[in-house]
Design brief:
By secondary structure, the chain is mainly alpha-helical. It has a two-stranded antiparallel ribbon. Strands 3-4 form a two-stranded antiparallel ribbon. Strand 1 and strand 2 form a beta hairpin. Helix 2 packs antiparallel against helix 3, helix 24 runs antiparallel to helix 25 and helix 26 packs parallel to helix 33. The chain is elongated.
Length: 980
């Protein structure tokens, strides 16, 4: 199981690149991969259909008892086959649905594969926390798929609505999972269902879990998000909203039903909500003119029926529910796919504009009609067999539980609506209409696009004709769901013909009344009176979000005044009150105080204190930034004195980079600081600052006095060497012992870089700074020198930098260019040395990346943005992404070899007289850190540096009318004028 998940996950990671290289043909490869996963699961699933249960478990967080546990029994095997089988067919459909070169296709394919992995992991996971991770993965990835067309506002709004509704339910479900795990002492879903907790805790927990399941499956009152999600491309609708995502909630209800069915109100809640959903969805489907919305609301209606069936928490109903679930998937998916073909061929989905399409596309007409007939429950299709089974079990269970009879009545009425809106769908899409001109097929997608719909319909037909083949599988599934115990009553076997039964009579009534209603609805649009929009769930949702926005705006206006001193004062006051109050109540002061451990500390401390004081009296921003930087360098000196060279090196480098970033920013700010504060404000700031200083000092003293045991750091050197094969404890900690923290920090760095760039870039986040290759830069410089007539012209100077010709001669410094040219390569070599030696000596990927970044800073300061582009002709985002991807990959690679995540391996290479070279796998993780830090500095230079340069250039051009760059560059036209 894990091998399939990892294989599909790796496929999703390379999908973006494959689509960029091979276009839509990549979908054929992806379909083959998914079909291979289906075949592998089918081989394993055969064991589960004979009563076996396959489990796999890996330690995740042993201290918390968390494991990566997977379980493949009959029901999870059925869902896994649905996820992979439907996924393979829909990926095949994508090959012919999308146009070659269509925008965002690579992203779509990668996200689609990622969603398939998340959905497959969801149905295979046995650990509830692992299940929740996959659950939220489907939520996020479905958000991206629904909003695939980013320029379409309706798609963006629908994606956000789906995200908010399902995430809200998912958070409630997480709380329920935590309560269940605490009450039962295990996080395995199979064990929780086998021994469910009782009492109030168990009741509250199961209802919280149901909130997540109902929101995911679009059950009232969470049903509003699914019809809006039809703004997604057709393959998304067919997969997420017919075969996969909306089935996740049904899967969870089916799982927990045997254990929690007797919880007070459990059955009543699910049957009532399912009934409302089924009737509401059916009625709304009859009122739609968009054929895709007819299918969408029909999906909501059928999900309501499934919730009613599984909500009875009876093995017989669960048997019928599984049959209904798969019959719905193999019928609803081809309906969505057919809508996509119609939309492609005619450019419309409005049934009022569609006429006579059945004659022009006969194969599609037959396929769609069969799929609609299966949905309506007509023989001899799978939908008829499944609905007959549901009617039969409702009546059988009703003898002991009257609630089932209510569900039966609602199911009959809802099935009448199903026949009606399916008839209206087929009529609206294909029938000739006297008052509507026959629509033209403006774009024929070809016959190959019909392969997937035909296979789905063939399965629907086979499921009816050969229903007995699947009967043992479903029987095994409900036996395992019930814990393997013998049931008092057994479910009726699946068959196309059971004789003259009450269920058959109910089906006949449904078909006759449904056909009549379909006929009436095709002749008039007033079958059901339209409910006012202000009473709809969608309107209530948007009203609620508007209220939230209004409250947020008013709260922001009170707290966010646009004053940085005010924000800082509030934060510091909270720190003083909360932490200072806690310190005053403690009695853990140390017995002795050591003011100074080295005489050298005194001058360093005096310099830091004086720098802090003078920074308060600085009149310009540059002075204040430099003085604040002095305190940072003082801290680096103190770290070095106390035997922490790694911290000292990192602190000095970070302080330098920070100082440069500040300098880049303050170029666009007034040189002098604002007006002096009043005496009252200065006293308030003095009190706050003094209180913070005293509080932090007291906390440091209390922390020293509170330590009564030996610090854990005493064991770190041995742990670093034996576990990470490194002598530098700090570096081994970062890339091995607490590598998860480092991965989180790398993600924060990426988010920070994106945030800074989004605040600076005006038109696009894309890195479009000038990029010159070395050969191009030298060629341009040579051609430029040949055009110079006057040998004394400053432009004749030798260009020590790649982009030197773009610099204004009046602002060039030959000394700076020579120094930078000589130091740049030395700094790069030093950065690589720090990277490779950091495992056993001061350094590491972080420090090495900072040194490489400083080399880049020097290049930019000497040559401006053109030199920056010529030095690194790569996109900063790609470097950042590559670094994070490398770090994440090295975190998970050990799992392929049976080790825990981030486990290190090493080999010592004997170099003879040159000694021994240790090669540690965590070094590759450190290279990822190096790339992320280097990419961050490059991104900052291109946003706070090059982009601001361009802003200043635009401002200067608007002011003077002369095309002059802010970094001293001159345009080619201006250069020609000067040469003349």
């Amino acid at each position: 199981m894990t091998s399939i998940l990892l294989g599909l996950a790796l496929t999703s990671l390379v999908t973006h690149t494959l689509v960029r290289l091979f276009g839509r043909r990549t979908f054929l490869l992806l379909a083959a991969v998914m079909a291979g996963a289906f075949a592998f699961l089918l081989v394993v699933a055969v064991q589960t259909f004979h009563g076996e249960i396959v489990t796999e478990s890996f330690e995740w967080i042993p201290q918390l008892g968390l494991t990566l546990s997977f379980r493949l029994d009959a029901i999870s095997a059925l869902f896994a086959l649905l996820v992979t089988g439907a996924g393979a067919l829909i990926l095949l459909y994508c090959t012919y649905y999308f146009e070659e070169g269509e925008g965002g296709l690579a992203r779509f394919a990668a996200v689609f594969m990622g969603f398939a992995v998340a959905m497959l992991g969801l149905v295979l996971a046995d650990d509830i926390y692992l299940l929740f991770i996959f659950w939220e993965g489907t939520t996020i990835l479905s958000f991206l798929l629904i909003g695939h067309v980013t320029k379409l506002r309706t798609a963006n709004a629908a994606a956000l609505q789906a995200l908010m509704v399902t995430t809200l339910g998912g958070l409630a479900m997480l709380v329920g999972f935590v309560l269940l795990a605490q009450a039962t002492g295990t996080s395995l879903l199979s064990e929780i269902v086998a021994n469910p907790p009782g009492g109030v805790l168990g009741t509250v927990a199961v209802y919280l879990v149901l909130a997540g399941a109902l929101s995911k499956s679009a059950i009232f009152p969470f049903h509003l998000w699914l019809p809006g999600a039809m703004a997604a491309p057709t393959p998304v609708s067919a997969y997420l909203h017919a075969a996969a995502m909306v089935k996740a909630g049904i899967y969870l209800i089916a799982r927990i039903g045997p254990g929690f069915g007797d919880t007070p109100g459990y059955r009543e809640t699910l049957v009532i909500l399912g009934a409302i959903t089924m009737l509401n969805g059916g009625i709304r489907a009859l009122k739609q003119f968009d054929i895709k919305l007819i299918v969408a609301h029909g999906t909501v209606s059928q999900l309501g029926l499934l919730v009613m069936v599984f909500g009875l928490a009876d093995p017989r109903a669960a048997f019928a529910g599984l049959a209904l679930l798969f019959a719905h998937a193999v019928a609803k998916a081809p309906l969505f796919l057919a809508v996509g073909v119609i939309d492609h061929a005619t450019g419309t989905r409005d049934l009022r504009k569609l006429s006579g399409l059945g004659r022009k596309m006969p194969v599609l007409f037959v396929v769609t009609t069969l799929a609609a007939a299966s949905m309506a429950g007509l023989p001899p299709l799978a939908g008829f067999v499944a609905k007959e089974s549901a009617f039969t079990e409702f009546l059988a269970i009703g003898a002991d539980r009257p609630l089932a009879l209510i569900a039966f009545g609602v199911a009959v009425v809802g099935s009448i609506l199903t026949v009606a809106y399916m008839g209206r769908f087929v009529w609206g899409a294909f029938a000739p209409k006297p008052d509507t001109a026959a629509c033209a097929v403006v774009h024929s997608p070809g016959r190959a696009i019909l392969i997937a719909p035909v296979v789905f319909v063939a399965l629907a037909l086979s499921g009816g004709l050969f229903a007995g083949v699947a009967d043992p599988w479903l029987q095994t599934a409900i036996e395992q769901m019930a814990g393997g115990g013998a049931s008092t009553h057994s479910a009726e076997h699946l068959a196309l013909w059971h004789g003259l039964t009450p269920a058959l009579g109910a089906s006949a009534v449904v078909i006759l009344l449904g056909a009549a209603l379909a006929y009436v609805s095709s002749r008039t649009t007033a079958v059901f009176r339209t409910v006012q929009e202000r009473f709809s769930a969608s309107h209530i949702y948007w009203l609620f979000t508007q209220w939230v926005d209004l409250i947020a705006v008013r709260l922001t206006s009170l707290t966010q005044r646009g004053s940085l001193p005010f924000y800082l004062a509030v934060i510091l006051i909270v720190v003083v009150v909360s932490l200072g109050g806690s310190v005053l109540t403690m009695d853990v002061w140390p017995d002795t105080f050591e003011l100074v451990s080295s005489p050298v500390q005194i001058p360093i401390a005096l310099v830091m204190i004086l720098a802090a004081i003078f920074s308060l009296r600085a009149r310009t921003r540059f002075q204040s930034v430099v003085l604040v930087g002095v305190t940072g360098y003082g801290m680096a000196a103190l770290f070095a004195m106390h035997g922490a060279p790694d911290l000292a090196l990192t602190q000095a480098l970070v302080e330098t980079v920070t100082l440069i970033a500040f300098v880049l920013v303050i170029r666009r700010l007034p040189q002098r600081l604002g007006r002096a504060s009043t005496r009252r404000v200065r006293w308030v700031r003095l009190v706050i600052g003094g209180a913070v200083g005293l509080t932090i000092g007291a906390i440091a003293i209390v922390a020293l006095g509170a330590r009564i045991a030996d610090p854990i750091s005493l064991e770190l050197p041995a742990l670093a060497y034996n576990g990470g094969h490194g002598s530098n404890v700090v570096n081994v900690m970062l890339v091995d012992i607490r590598g998860w923290d480092t991965m989180g920090e790398l993600s924060v760095i990426l988010a920070a870089a994106t945030g800074v760039a989004s605040l600076v870039f005006l038109n696009t986040r894309e890195d479009n700074r000038p990029k010159l290759t070395r050969s191009a830069a030298r060629t341009q410089a040579r051609e430029h020198l040949l055009r110079v007539v006057d040998p004394n012209d400053p432009m004749r100077r030798i260009s020590w930098l790649l982009a030197g010709r773009h610099l204004d001669p009046a602002r060039r410094s030959i000394m700076l260019e020579v120094v930078v040219r000589l130091l740049f390569h030395a700094l790069i070599i030093l950065s690589i040395f720090l990277l490779l030696s950091g495992h056993n000596a001061p350094g590491g990927g972080f420090a090495g990346g900072l040194v490489a970044g400083l080399a880049l800073v020097a290049r930019y300061l000497a040559g401006g943005r053109y030199e920056l582009g010529a030095t690194v002709p790569l996109d900063a985002g790609r470097i950042l992404g590559a670094g994070l991807a490398l770090a994440v990959t090295m975190a998970f690679v050990p799992m392929f070899f049976g080790q825990s995540a981030l486990a290190s391996a090493w080999v010592d290479v004997d170099l003879g007289v040159f000694g021994t070279l240790p090669l540690v796998t965590s070094t590759l993780f450190d290279i990822g850190v190096y790339l992320v830090v280097f990419g961050l500095i490059l991104d900052v230079l291109r946003s706070l540096g090059a982009e601001i340069d361009e802003h200043e250039e635009d401002d200067a051009t608007e002011t003077t009318g002369v095309d002059v760059a802010s970094d001293g560059a001159i345009s080619d036209d201006t250069a020609k004028v000067r040469n003349r």
